[in-house]
Amino acid sequence: MAWRVGILRELLCVSEKAANIARKEGEKNKKFAVDFKPLAGVLVQEAIKQNMENKFPGLGKKIFGEESNEFTNALGEKIIMRLCPTVEETVDLLNKVLNGNKLASETLAKVVHQDVVFSDPALDAIEINIPQDTLGVWVDPIDSTYQYIKGSADIKSNQGIFPSGLQCVTILIGVCDIQTGVPLMGVINQPFVSQDLNALRWKGQCNWGLSYMGTNIHSFLPV
Ligand SMILES: [Mg+2]
């Protein structure tokens, strides 16, 4: 059986898990008495790192990101945020970061540990083998952080372009050749694209691209 672009497929899944974490904040107003937006970037980055390491042992140490995993809570305690082996342990750790807000901790831990199945038939059709040891990964877990924290959900687009607002927020994962820095593949996940005003749920979208040894393909191309 031909080896398919396993890493890129996995990055799509993990970016969708990251988008789920980002979207959980939307439920805050209903359920949580705590603002966990400052934590979301750290949590997303750690989730991406840990999930990729689990699937591709050795890759985790070549994943770099914008956030430090050191988090300071409201009491001024420094906590190293990471994904624990079990949901319960992650709940305990999140609980420290979120100053004992059990409901928020449990909700977030559940999303972080949830398996996400997410695929694109166009990507499934590609058969290409990229050796893992040549790869480096850069993550921007929440791009447009200011819009994520302060951004409105009611901004109108200008010919499809949002000048500000939640729609500007993206999860960016870029993969390069670690020797040369040449970009090889990447995923852009946009967690907030359109909102169902009755359920107040957001729908997102995810795009990807790959450029390797003469194969150039991205999610905008028809199959
Ligand atoms: Mg950022």
Brief overview:
The protein is of the alpha+beta class and 223 residues long. The protein has helices at residues 6-24, 28-31, 37-55, 87-97, 102-113, 121-124, 145-150, and strands spanning 63-65, 70-72, 78-80, 135-143, 170-177, 183-196, 201-212, 215-218. Helix 1 (6-24) runs antiparallel to helix 3 (37-55) and helix 1 (6-24) runs antiparallel to helix 5.
General description of the model:
This is inositol-1,4-bisphosphate 1-phosphatase. The chain has 223 residues and is an alpha+beta fold. The protein contains seven helices and eight strands; from the N terminus they run αααβββαααβαββββ. The chain has a six-stranded mixed β-sheet with strand order 1-4-5-6-7-8. Strands 2-3 form a two-stranded antiparallel ribbon. It is globular. 31% of the residues are buried. The mean pLDDT is 88. Bound molecules: magnesium ion.
